[in-house]
Specification:
By secondary structure, the chain is of the alpha+beta class. The chain is built from 6 helices and 7 strands. The longest helix is centred in the last third of the chain and has 21 residues. The relative contact order is 0.17.
Length: 192
Amino acid sequence: MKHTMYLMRFAFDKIVNGTKRVEVRLFDEEHQKIKLNDVLEFVCQETSERVVCLVRGILVFERCDDLVNLLPAKVFGYDNKEEVRLRLNRRFGFEEQLLNHVVGILIMPLQVSESEHEDKEYVEEGRNAEREERKSFKQSFSEVKQMLKEEKNWHPVSQKIVHSNEEGIEAKEKAAQIEKLRRCGLEDEGRE
């Protein structure tokens, strides 16, 4: 099955150049339809360029922090886990994370395609150098490494967390309890 997702230029370029291997989204009804070996088509919002990726794994967690702790920062396209954690927690609120959970979709880029409405290839004074450079990069995209060293040992994982309404507490109360436990855990880590 094919799913389409829209990204800002910054994130789109990271997928195209092979540095971003995990797309993080809320595990809402729309994203629960994504399965292993499905195809994701990422569309750049600014240019309508597209990159097609294969779903290699699905990781579902209650919070972004748990996902970030499990994977190396490199697969998110960053050098440090704290930056990844801050960006994801800014993007998804704490209550949103606890109500929907988060899904980390392990992806492998397969193909880049040109945008639907192309810019002119030439400008009046001569060739558009930036456009030519991007185009030559796309032609050599098939030579990009498909896997990082760490990824060769990974196995696709699919899991789904289901919470029952019969747990006896409301979502907000549960979120407060989990946050309290999390803070206690962080304080314990600081003492050691």
